[in-house]
């Protein structure tokens, strides 16, 4: 086997600091977790705010791709990065973003259509760059799907209003109840602003396309959650069936319980393994008494003489070959039909954008689903100065991804308006060892969040997930493997093998120099003397940064240093 010499650059960053690279906004999870271990929640929260304006929100609802990428998952379970983000906001002495200084006004005006997470993120960054920003929101509240798509028992409304207030303090004008839904209104924006960002979200429900969908008592998930969150729906009948397996379906089902339903079922055509909703949400739904019918598809909705829903006819499935997205296709099992007695059917099988105002006369190309076609790098449509991002371009995605769209679009808009852009990054190492490592961190289990007792959950506004306690926050943060610290062995090494003896995960090996590609580079860097035939190598994937090798080395040839980067 041949070994390659790794250099600390952008490629190394992607390969080794998996959590940060997996995050769409590149949140430096390892850095803010390090601050938690040191007990400095304020510094940790500041690092979160540098990546996005919503740590207090994302700590509750993020789908945390960082955790999927976390190397700790190869040992037992990944670090609960999302919960630690929430702990920052819960335990910091001041949970507001730092005040901007020396903002010079550019005189440029930007209109943003939609005040959801993508629009708010773009507005924040553009305002910080000195542009005048106006957000046009069709709903009576700001926040988009944060406010009308997610129930308050998962995301308290005060957390959304906090973020909106911070953005308003930057001078952003948010105009509620102001839809941009006609040619004339869009024309006005084109004439009155230097750039436009379309972030209208995906607020239109997909239809079931089965018999009985027009019966009384049939609702659609997006509309149901919107009307529930706006206080239009205050109660539901006793028996509710929800069709779908995503977050919206789970939210509809759990909200129905809180609105008075006695029996709530979810009908999902695949298995738990393929279910798009998060593991925690699914388990809590089942814990609250919701029955999930897996491998089941609706066939028709049955009503009585008054056209009111009475039953939902379903059919059982088996999974066949994967579809074009890699998910196994459900195949109906002939003769397996059955009916569920229901008073209400809520279809939550997907949603799409509603931006019909983008007519051809505006010279903005759309795809066959009516979504604007953009340049994937700049987020600009084919019409100069008109940008688009978020759910209205791709269909529904998770919050962190659309926030990333908003931030990237803001950078492109700023470049379009001023010609300025970031130059890139500088990568380097600091002579700094980790501090505050807890004993037995490598065997400490993942810590669980506290949850509201079952008897107290039935208020729609009662937050169920309570976050990590401060004690468990420290324990969880202490589990981090600190992938941004690395072990270095220099020319003082005498090849005694002591580091090999103490390494608990067999990360260090002594190999023949001929097995190292470009071994001369090791000599140039002072890693090994030029006349040696052997070299010490470290497997970064296995290393848990315990530091035992550093302590064991008799000649102080081994050091642990912190990888860092900065914008140039």
Major beta sheet, strand line-up = 3-2-1-4-16
Name the beta content range.
15-25%
Mean pLDDT: 90
Tell me the number of helical segments per DSSP (H or I, 4 or more residues long).
20
Description:
This protein is of the alpha/beta class and 568 residues long. It folds into four domains: 18-98 and 425-477, no CATH class; 109-203 and 353-418, FAD/NAD(P)-binding domain (3-Layer(bba) Sandwich); 205-349, FAD/NAD(P)-binding domain, CATH 3.50.50.60; 485-567, 2-Layer Sandwich (Alpha-Beta Plaits), CATH 3.30.70. The strands form seven sheets. A five-stranded parallel beta sheet has the order 3-2-1-4-16, with helices on both faces. Helix 3 crosses helix 7 (81-91), helix 8 packs parallel to helix 16 and helix 12 crosses helix 13. The protein starts with 9 loop residues before the first helix and ends with a strand. The mean pLDDT is 90.
